[in-house]
Amino acid sequence: MKEKIRVASGQGFWGDLQSIPLEQVSKGEIDYLMMDFLAEVTMSIMQKQKKRDPNAGYAKDLIQILSDIFPYAVEKNIKIITNGGGVNPKACVDDIIKCAHKHGIRGVKIGVVTGDDILDSIEELQKEGARFDNMETGQSIESIKSKLLSANVYFGAVPIVEALKKGAQIIITGRTTDTSLTYAPMIYEFDWKWNDWDKLAAGVVAGHILECGGQASGGNFLGNWKSIPDLAHIGFPIAEAYPNGEFIITKHDGTGGLVSIETVSEQLLYEIGDPTNYITPECISDFTSIKLENAGKDKVRVFGIKGSPATDFYKVSMAYSDGYSAAGTLTYSWPDALEKAKKADEIIRTRLSDLKLNFDEIRTEFLGVNSCHGPLAPIQNEINEVVLRIAVRGHSYNDIEAFGKELAPLILTGPPSVTGFAGGRPKPAEVVAYWPALIPKKLVEPKVKILET
């Protein structure tokens, strides 16, 4: 058993800084690199890509990233774990193998985790007892089943640990929990038992801190953000983990950003519901038990975490087609910028009504005035410029398309001093809606396959 391991965050989302993985493997010592690419909407986007091209449906950025870091990973024996396989882990691995061969790299074992994609098995699983009711509203899935675009089970650390035990140096998964990418190595290296609830919960907390990349090391920091040094060269967080479940959050020396009790605390509060009941496939973590302690420059010790047994369910992330939307903008300048923008909004709404177009929602924002804080925003009378942004949503493609034809005429038939219309008429875009559900664990099982470069 190792005395400690260092798990580094390499990506916080699909589209994050591509330079970070190379920095993490080259600027200091790490044992594992985790890269989180997936979000709820990402899965539906990838599913649509795969339908157009059977070789698509994964994070294409991953191939270039691996091309950059392969030599370091092989030389230093750094293990890489990522959910960048999206809805097509097999195609992703095929391209990774090609990438490895271009670098002359042979014999590296790659673990592929599949089984999370249940889109084509909904009917069968319902017959076996899965309900798929909406977790938030209780609504039956029957109302949207015909419009489903994706359905993916959130697996946890179990298949990743299995792949590590089989010797995989690179592990590509589909929809696994973000946190499992970090705590699976801890379970494997420290031989934690599946009922070591406190230790498992500690791993989950470490994963939650790392999963959003630079957000734990000074990025998007709401506290004294002006004090964060050199965000242009931000260093992503690293969890230095120990067998007893304690860990230290840090980053490589010489990188920008900041690891402090404040930055770590903000990330701990990010996207959680009941802090006493943070549910993952392997355990439930109590975030109110977390203790933080300053352990030196850019070092925060995390300890005292309590956990409890897991539930009998996996979460399922589903997405379905819910009509169309379109949005457009116009910019109005001083004087009376806000008054002009409000008048333009009134005019276009009247014209849309005259045309008897049917929308589920029309939403107007005045960028520079209230687009972030809505009715809570204080109105300033003398504003240099205001961007009118108006959007519509509905189930009629033709009505959404008709809206797009009504924005440009405001330039010559509405208030004066308008600019900023570019890119042509707003076009209808498909609305993808989110449907969270549960499935009994006994009905699905992850599959692990080991391939070799």
What does this structure look like?
By secondary structure, the protein is α+β, with helices and mostly antiparallel strands. It folds into two domains: 5-116 and 154-311, no CATH class; 322-433, Alpha-Beta Plaits, CATH 3.30.70. The chain contains twelve helices and 19 strands. The chain has a ten-stranded mixed sheet with strand order 11-12-8-7-1-2-3-6-4-19, sandwiched between helices. Strands 5, 14, 15, 16, 17 and 18 form a six-stranded antiparallel sheet that branches. A three-stranded antiparallel sheet has the order 9-10-13, with helices on one face. The protein starts with a strand and ends with a strand. The mean pLDDT is 96.
How much of the sequence lies in strands comes to 25-35%
Broad structural category? alpha+beta
Query: Helical stretch count?
Result: 12
How far do the termini sit from each other? 28 Å
How does the overall form come out from the CA principal axes? globular
Largest sheet: 10 strands, mixed
Tally of separate domains: 2
Strand order of the largest sheet: 11-12-8-7-1-2-3-6-4-19
Helix content: 25-40%
Contiguous low-pLDDT stretches (5 residues minimum) are none
What is the residue-averaged pLDDT? 96
The Rg value, from CA coordinates, equals: 25 Å
Kindly state the number of beta strands.
19
